[in-house]
Amino acid sequence: MSPKTGAKQTQTPGRVIDPATVQRYNRNANYHNIPIKKSRNDYLKQTLRKTTSKWNNAAEKAIDYDDILLPESSGYLVPEHELERTWKLKQGDLKKSADVATSQKIFDLDLPTLGPYRVDYTRNGRHLLIGGKKGHLATFNWKTGKLGCEIQVQETIRDVKWLHNETMFAVAQKKYVYIYDNTGIELHCLRNHIEVNQLEFLPYHFLMASVGNAGYLKYQDTSTGKIIAEMRTGLGRCDVMAQNRYNAIMHLGHSNGTVTLWSPNMTSPLVKMLCHRGPVTALAMDRDGLYMASAGLDGQLAIWDIRTFKPLHSYYTPTPASSLSISDLGLIGVGFGPHVHVWKDAFLTKQMSPYMTHMKPGTSVQNVRFVPYEDVLGIGHSAGVSSIAIPGAGEPNFDSLEANPYQNRKQRREAEVHSLLDKIQPEMIVMNPEFVGTLDRAPGEVIAAGKKVEYEANNPKEKYKPKHKARGKSSAKNKFIRKQKNVIHRGSAV
C-alpha cells in the first residue's frame, strides 16, 4: 500500500522499495493522506486510483534514474540508542574517529590580533578567502594548505567576497570597495560604492551588489565595469544582505525589523516583510529559493516560506544570532556569541534540539559559511578562523558544468569563457524566473473586445452576449485534487 494515498502501487514483481524513498520522489497531489475511499463518487475513485498509480510508477522510475545518475549519497550522524544525542558529539571526538581526509578538514587558525574575521568560499568549494577587520587579507586552497596571497591593506575591512572564480575577489574597506587578483594586486577601486557593509555576487549575471551606511543598494557589472542600478532603500543604514540563488533577488534586513526584496529593474522593493520586533541581524536563503531564515535582536530565529511569505516556526537563541548559513542539503548554521548551532530538517518541522553544536570559548562568532560540496562549516570569529565537520551538510553529487571541485587551470578558463557567453541580462531578474518562454496572453478586456467585433461582423442583426463558461473547473475530481494541493516541501519531490 502507498504510505500516503492508500492506493495500490504497481512495482516490478519481486522488487521491494523503501516507502520513505518512494515518498521522496512522489509528486502525488494527495500529499496529506486523505483516503480515496471517503469519496462518494465511484467514477472519481477510479480516476484517482489510476492517477495515483501513474504517480507511483513515475516515482519508481525516478529512483532508478537516481541510482544511475546520482550514485553518491549523503550521510548523517545517527544515535545508537534513544538516550544518545548528536549535539553532544565534540569535534575532537569526531576527528579521532573519522578518516584521515575528514580529520584534516577540522582545523583552527589562531589570529587573535587582527580579527574578527569574515570568511567566504568559492562556488566549487576549493578556495577560502579570509578578511580581518584590522586589514588582514589572505586566500588559500584550504584542502591542500597552499597559500594564494596574503596582504595587509592598512584599513578597516567590513566584508570580503569571491567573484566569478578564485582569480578575483572584492573587499569592502573603510571607504571604498576594492577588487584584487589572486596574487594580491589591486585591480580596481570602486569609488561609487561608499562605506559598504555587505557584498554579494550574482555568478550568472556577473553582478556585484553592495549595501552600506548610506542605505543604497548598488549593482555593478564586473564584466563591463558599469553601474547597472542604484536604489535608495529609504530605511537607513543596512548591514544585512543575502541573495536568493534561485531567482537572484536580493534580501535586505533593516533596523526596523523588516526584510525587503529587491530587483535591479525596480526602484522600490518587490516585497516588504515584517519579520522581527527589532533590528534584523542575519539572513540566509536555501539553495532552491523556497525558504528563508532570519534572525533579529529579539532573540528569534524565524523560518519563512518565500512562496507564501508566511512564517513556519521559530527558534530562540540565548544571544541574538550574528550570522546564518544554509547548506546545500538544508542544514542551518547559526552563529551567536561563542556558539555555533546546526539545525537539521528545520524547514519541515520544528526541531526540539539542534543537530550539532560547537563552541569556541572566549571568542565572538562573526560569520559562518558552509563549504559547497563538503561536509564542512567555516567559522570566522574574533580569534581567527575555524573549520568544523558537519556530516550531511554538502551535496555529494556535483555538476562539473556548474562548479567543478576538481577543475584544472584549462577547465577554469573554459568555464569562465562559457559563463561570459551565457551571461544573463539584469532585466531578467524577477520573482518568478520561470516566466521566460511562457505565452504572454492579452488582457481579458482585449480578448472580449475581439470576440465582440468578430460576432457583430458575422451577425450584424444580433446583439453580442458574452458567455461565461468554466467547464471542467468545478468537477468532483478537480475539486478533490484542488483541496489537497498545498506547499510541497523539499522532502516530497525532487
TrEMBL record:
Keywords: Nucleus, Repeat, rRNA processing, WD repeat
Region span, Disordered: 458-494
Primary site of residence: nucleus
UniProt record, GO biological process: maturation of SSU-rRNA from tricistronic rRNA transcript (SSU-rRNA, 5.8S rRNA, LSU-rRNA)
WD repeat intervals: 273-314
Basic residues bias spans: 464-488
PROSITE patterns: WD_REPEATS_1, WD_REPEATS_2, WD_REPEATS_REGION
Gene Ontology CC terms: 90S preribosome; small-subunit processome
SMART domains tied to this protein: BING4CT, WD40
Pfam families: BING4CT, WD40
Superkingdom, taxonomy of origin: Eukaryota
Bilayer-crossing regions: none
UniProt keyword Cell membrane, yes or no: no
Cellular localisation: Nucleus, Nucleolus
Cross-referenced InterPro entries: BING4_C_dom (IPR012952), WD40/YVTN_repeat-like_dom_sf (IPR015943), WD40_repeat_CS (IPR019775), WD40_repeat_dom_sf (IPR036322), WD40_rpt (IPR001680), WDR46/Utp7 (IPR040315)
Segments forming domain BING4 C-terminal: 354-433
Function: Involved in nucleolar processing of pre-18S ribosomal RNA.
Protein name per Swiss-Prot or TrEMBL: U three protein 7
Organism field: Synchytrium endobioticum
Lineage, uppermost ranks: Eukaryota, Fungi, Fungi incertae sedis, Chytridiomycota, Chytridiomycota incertae sedis
